[in-house]
Every structure is written in C-alpha cells, then in structure tokens.
Write a structure and sequence with these properties.
alpha/beta; single chain; about 120 residues; about 30% helix; 6 strands
Length: about 120
C-alpha cells in the first residue's frame, strides 16, 4: 500500500477519496504547526510515497535563513515527490521563489490535485 503524507489544511475529502482507493495517509508537520510527524524527520522506514500540502506550509518567513529545500530536505534525500498546491496563475511566479528543490517538487492547481496525485501514486 502506498502512503500519502499530508500537511495541515489538506482537503479532508481528498484524503477520504485516497483512503477509499486503498492508499494510506499520514499527517505531517512543517515544524511550526505540530500537525503530525515533522516532514524533516521522514525516513525510508516511514514508507511515504508522496507528500502534499499548500505552498504556505513550506515557505519560510521573510528574513529566515531557510529555503523551501531546507524544509523539505528529507523528501529530497529520500526521493519523495512533493506536490505543492498553488493556483495555476501563480505557478511561474512561485517557481522563481522556490530555490534549489531539485526535481522532486511539483506544483498542482487545486482543481487537479486528485488526478495528479493518483498519477504519481500509480507510477
């Protein structure tokens, strides 16, 4: 069974649909909200196939000496794809502000989350 790690605010209907299709879900924290396991502490043993969450959950505050790649470093190390929920009209602008996150990060418009997520899970 594949498992989706999700950051706080992820649509509960989406999570219910995933579980109904046979996928597992596990809450993850960005380190500030204590929503679940800290995303930076994910290990191979957690067997998370993909992480999903809204852009604001991984963006450091202005003035912090962090980048998105720092928040998601465990995902990069363990080659776990990350889907950031960002309205399509902001994709180009946001891509410029993401820094070095490698090729594991994808932006998805809110209307296309379930389709894109299941595509990744079925790869």
């Amino acid at each position: 069974m594949k498992t989706v790690g999700y950051l706080e605010g992820t649509d509960p209907i989406l999570l219910t649909r995933l579980v109904a299709k046979g996928y597992g879900t596990v809450p993850l924290s960005n380190g500030w909200d204590n929503h679940g396991k800290y995303v930076g502490h994910i290990t191979k043993g957690d067997d998370i196939s993909v992480v999903i969450g809204y852009l604001h959950k991984v963006m450091p505050l202005p003035g912090q000496d962090l980048e998105v790649g720092d928040v998601l470093f465990a995902c990069r190390i363990h080659k776990i794809p990350v889907l950031l929920i960002v309205p399509k009209e902001f994709h180009r602008q946001v891509a410029k502000s993401l820094g070095d996150v490698g090729d594991m990060l994808y932006m998805v418009d809110p209307k296309n989350i379930f389709t894109r997520l299941t595509e990744i899970l079925e790869e």
